[in-house]
Amino acid sequence: MKRTAVSLSAAALLLPLSACGGSAEAGSGSTVTVTVGYQSKTINTVTAGTLLRSLGYFEKQLNSLHDGHTYKVDWQDYATGAPITAQMTAGKIDIGSMGDFPLLLNAARGKQLGRPTHLVSVTGYNLRGGLNTVVTAPHSQFTSLKDLEGKKVSTSIGSAADGTLVRALQRAGIDPNKGISKLNQQPAVGASALSAGSVDALSQFVAWPGLLAYQGKAKALYDGARLNLPTFHGVTAREDFAEQHPAVMTAFLKAQAQATDYLNGRPVAAAEKVAEATGLPAEVVYLYNGAHGIATFDPAVKPQLVSALKQDVSVLKAAELTGDVDVDSFVDDQYVKKALGTSYAKRLAASPPPAASEVWVKGSEKTVSFKTPKKLLAYVAGHRDAVRAAYVPDTTTGTLWFADKAVWVADGGQVLPFVAPDTAQEYVSAHGGARTVSYRAALEQAS
């Protein structure tokens, strides 16, 4: 587990333990250390973590307070949300970011231990659920979730990806508790297990499915967007910290909004920054965080996301991971409303950008968009040496995917992309004359 701390002076390190986690005395001239837990490689949290940290916006906002305090930020990097929750309920992390299912566990654990937490903003979301994907080995013969019955599947229990797996299996008529052998593994461990052949499939959250597909170590079996249920990541804060330091909360959320605007305004540059900080390929980061990426970034706490959070409770209860969770009392958007002011209503009403095919040209900080996947293919066919990455939206779900990793279908004069084989097959079955074709054949037809 990697833990990183920056901007800590020697004096801050010598503070007693009771002064860590933002609990320093708020008297004039005191030092307040704000501890932020984030997941660097869960890249649709970057506006509250990796990107925010690299841009330095939070520190700048804190320095502008001029309230007599000295502020220090301690950034702590984790692989999943669970250890962030553990540290928050121990009073050692003040603000954290994690996925929707871990957020519910965060709420339940905080209430249970008498250290309540609150969802204060959203980072990235997908209204259909496309942030989670089930993948198999690249040469696997599996074509649908039904093929996983009786097989070994790796996931992180209690994560958003586990929630997708459970719901998807249920819809496929498979008991998620008895129909498969589920292994509870960290994402990196599950990825290694898939490569080693010790599991048959992996259900994980951003950015693992895209990374493994990009590396040629996996292929998509199930697109989470087929559930048509919103999934998102958000920011949670300890109630006692927020009440003691409302100005810090406002500063954090203003900084998050600035990072969000930077990402949306300069998506290629943002992808490069996140790639540099995480070691992930920038092409994978852009798949999720790009101009038409799988994730949409906006700090507003949208009603449809809160509604989805309420639906998620039943999945966690069935898995005996938590009891009832009072979502309405967990959600607290007062700080983000104050931070964003009059722009909040506009952000709340904003819709995700329409899906589009996109090419990232080598050596450029700009991408080229195309109205149809066929036009993108024609461009790629004529500029193969100039293309750094090509992305296309799934014909059914709109989930963006790498063009050379997609399942292609020829239907008359059209060539249509799909993330997973079962979605492609459904289209073929419903359209006479349609057939799946290779990527090479799709390129030839388009050109």
Structure description:
The chain has 447 residues and is α+β, with helices and mostly antiparallel strands. The protein has helices at 10-13, 50-55, 57-63, 82-89, 100-112, 160-171, 187-196, 208-214, 239-244, 246-265, 267-278, 282-289, 303-318, 327-330, 334-340, 343-349, 373-382, 421-430, 439-446, and strands at 31-38, 70-77, 95-99, 117-126, 132-136, 152-155, 181-184, 201-205, 219-223, 231-238, 296-297, 357-361, 367-370, 387-393, 400-402, 407-411, 414-418, 435-437. A hairpin with a 5-residue loop joins strand 12 and strand 13 (367-370). Residues 1-21 form the signal peptide. InterPro entries: SsuA/THI5 (IPR015168).
Helix-strand layout with pairing:
Layout: H1 10-13, E1 31-38, H2 50-55, H3 57-63, E2 70-77, H4 82-89, E3 95-99, H5 100-112, E4 117-126, E5 132-136, E6 152-155, H6 160-171, E7 181-184, H7 187-196, E8 201-205, H8 208-214, E9 219-223, E10 231-238, H9 239-244, H10 246-265, H11 267-278, H12 282-289, E11 296-297, H13 303-318, H14 327-330, H15 334-340, H16 343-349, E12 357-361, E13 367-370, H17 373-382, E14 387-393, E15 400-402, E16 407-411, E17 414-418, H18 421-430, E18 435-437, H19 439-446
Parallel strand pairs: 1-2, 1-3, 6-7, 6-8
Antiparallel strand pairs: 3-10, 4-10, 4-11, 5-8, 5-9, 12-13, 12-14, 14-15, 16-17, 16-18
